[in-house]
Specification:
Elements (H helix, E strand, L loop, with lengths): L1 H9 L2 E3 L2 E7 L20 E5 L10 E6 L2 E10 L8 E3 L1 H8 L6 E8 L9 E4 L6 E5 L5 E6 L2 E3 L1 E2 L4 E3 L10 E7 L4 E6 L6 E3 L8 E3 L17 H4 L12 H29 L5 H8 L1 H13 L3
Parallel strand pairs: 1-17, 2-6, 3-5
Antiparallel strand pairs: 2-7, 3-6, 4-5, 4-7, 8-9, 8-16, 9-13, 10-11, 10-14, 12-13, 14-15
Length: 300
């Protein structure tokens, strides 16, 4: 048991919350949208992400508004959304925001998909035997290899292309790499138009950093009002690390001393033309003392 706990803690992956706005969009209804998922998860809401996070197709996320959170699976793309924004269908938006009108300011982050003990499925497109799609992966599939050859990712939808010179007539050695860097592999028999259970699943967990979305309670009888949610946040102040601060102070001191030395050298060169040359003790005591002090350390 102790060893299993060690493995669990060693495999934890940290993810950072993303800030943005949630919009209401009834078109985000099922898996047949831009991601083209054949087997979407049945127990979560659907969501569409902005172009910046388009590579998150099939992955799961937790969205938070105030003290309320929901789990969604990324199944669509929101072309008009800004960085960090997502689209939600009516049921998901109402579950998250209650009676507050869209858009709402939220935080969301990638989490484990709630697949429980299911294994990853690999689905072969019924119209194109060269298109593969993994489904029900805990952390999302980033790389696929078939018989040791890379299966190129198709960016227009969540599909991988079967490597050239390979067919599905025989069993294949399948290798999948998650977005967290974990690799699973095994031998499976794939069939066109069928989602095949691989018996494989990623084990590494995705959790929040110190500023976790689950720090607050996951239910709320009274969701925050619009005025509470939209209140402007305090402007962030850039922090300077200690080594950088020391370097800046040192440069300032060196520059100041250099300027003094240059000034005193100039005074020294031209003091023969000044009345202070002969009368320094009486009329220019401060200047004379300064020049003499500098000349002790830096002869002019």
């Amino acid at each position: 048991m102790f060893l299993r706990l060690l493995v669990c803690f060693a495999s934890v992956i940290h993810a950072s919350p993303i800030s943005g706005y949630a919009f209401l969009n009834e078109e985000v209804t099922n898996s047949t949208r831009a991601c083209g998922l054949v087997q979407a998860l049945p127990n979560v809401f659907h969501a569409a992400v902005n172009s910046e996070h388009w590579n998150m197709c099939s992955r799961c996320a937790m969205a938070r508004y105030g003290a309320k959170t929901i789990t969604v699976q990324i199944t669509n793309q929101c072309i008009d959304c800004g960085a960090g924004d997502i689209d939600l269908p009516m049921l998901a938006f109402q579950e998250l925001a209650g009676g507050v009108d869209a858009p709402i300011s939220i935080e969301w982050m990638v989490i484990d998909c709630p697949v429980e003990d299911q294994s990853i499925l690999v689905c072969i497109d019924r119209n194109n035997a060269n298109l593969l799609q993994p489904a029900h992966a805990r952390n999302g599939v980033k790389i696929m290899r078939v018989n040791g050859k890379n299966a190129p990712f198709i960016g227009t939808s969540f599909h991988f292309a079967l490597p050239e010179d390979l067919s599905l007539n025989n069993k294949v050695h399948l290798e999948m790499v998650s977005w967290e860097g974990e690799t699973v592999q095994g031998v499976v028999q794939l069939k066109q138009g069928v989602c095949t259970s691989t018996g494989l699943q990623f084990q590494r967990a995705v959790v929040a950093e110190s500023r976790s979305l689950t720090d607050e309670t996951t239910t709320a009888e009274h969701p925050p009002t619009t005025s509470q949610q939209d209140a402007p946040s305090e402007p962030s102040v850039a922090k300077i690390s200690a080594p950088v601060a020391v370097l800046l102070v040192s440069c300032a001191i060196i520059g100041f001393v250099g300027a003094l030395v240059y000034m005193f050298k100039s005074i020294s060169r031209h003091r023969s033309d000044s009345k202070c040359d002969k009368e320094i003790p009486l009329e220019c005591p401060v200047t004379a003392a300064a020049i003499l002090h500098v000349e002790r350390f830096m002869p002019m």
